[in-house]
Each structure stands twice: as structure tokens, then as C-alpha cells.
Write a structure and sequence with these properties.
With about 160 residues, the protein is mostly helical. It is built from 6 helices and no strands. Helix 1 packs parallel to helix 3, helix 1 packs antiparallel against helix 5 and helix 5 crosses helix 6.
């Protein structure tokens, strides 16, 4: 596919920036609200383990995109539909990783205030990023993307 000016999905916000903003808001909420969930240390430790697994999953997704010859940055044109690696299981492994990492941090902190920021993160990611990317990919790749979309779930 050729690259032309305006050849990008027009996402509302760069997803890693959204994640950083939500983490900052979550930490402010966490330190502002003294209440903590009564989670056992091993459950909080699972939060740390989930964080490590999530990072590995995201790196796998990035490598898969690069191997397919497409851009990882959603502000740049998509050059191919990636259907291998984690993209065989979910159409959005990098965004699923952001959500999982945020959840893992909230579990490790045992912070309901931090976890409350998960809802805005998910809403902005879904409506401001994912749906825009899907419209763009369908317009750019047509039946190839529609076929992929029919085989692989959006999230999990």
C-alpha cells in the first residue's frame, strides 16, 4: 500500500501518552485516597507478575508488527495487516497490554482509587483509538482487513 498525506487513522491521543497520563492520575488518586484493598501479599505479587507478562506480550506484538513491515506508531500509515504473533489471538495486543499493565499496577498497589482510572483509560482507548484505527484499516485494506476482523476478536 502506498503512503499518502493523511494516511493514518487519526487517533485521538498517542496510546503510550494516554497510559502515562492515566498512571499519573491514578497515582494522584492513590495517594489522595487512603483506602486500600485487603489483598493478600501473594495476590499483590501476582500484580507484579502480570506486569512482567504484559510487558513481554507487548514486546512480542511490537516485534510482530516490525517483522510484518508496518509501523508501530498509530500516527504513521499502516503498511500491512499483521495476523501473526499475538495478532492471531487479539487485534489489539499492544492496547490490551496497556490495559493489563495498568490493572497490574493497581493490583500491586491494592488501590481502588488507582483502579478507578481504568474506566476512562479503556473508554478513551476504545473510542478514541481502536474504533478510529478499525475504520481506517477497513477503508485502506478492504476485504483483507474485514477477513482478519471476522477471524480474530477485537480484545480477547
Amino acid at each position: 500500500m502506498s503512503e499518502t498525506p493523511g494516511d493514518h487513522p487519526g487517533v485521538l491521543i498517542f496510546p503510550p501518552l494516554l497510559f502515562v497520563i492515566c498512571v499519573a492520575c491514578g497515582l494522584v488518586a492513590h495517594f489522595g485516597c487512603p483506602y486500600r484493598l485487603a489483598l493478600s501479599p501473594w495476590i499483590r505479587g501476582l500484580g507484579g507478575g502480570l506486569a512482567l507478562g504484559t510487558i513481554a506480550f507487548a514486546l512480542w506484538g511490537q516485534r510482530s508488527m516490525k517483522a510484518a513491515g508496518t509501523n508501530v506508531n498509530p500516527g504513521l500509515p499502516a503498511l500491512a495487516i499483521v495476523a501473526k504473533g499475538p495478532f492471531a489471538f487479539t487485534r489489539n495486543p499492544l492496547y490490551l497490554s496497556l490495559i493489563s499493565l495498568f490493572t497490574a499496577i493497581g493490583i500491586a498497589l491494592a488501590s481502588p482509587a488507582f483502579l478507578a482510572v481504568l474506566a476512562p483509560l479503556c473508554l478513551v482507548l476504545h473510542f478514541g483509538v481502536v474504533l478510529r484505527e478499525e475504520r481506517y484499516l477497513e477503508a485502506k485494506f478492504g476485504d483483507t482487513y474485514r477477513g482478519y476482523k471476522s477471524r480474530v476478536r477485537r480484545w480477547i
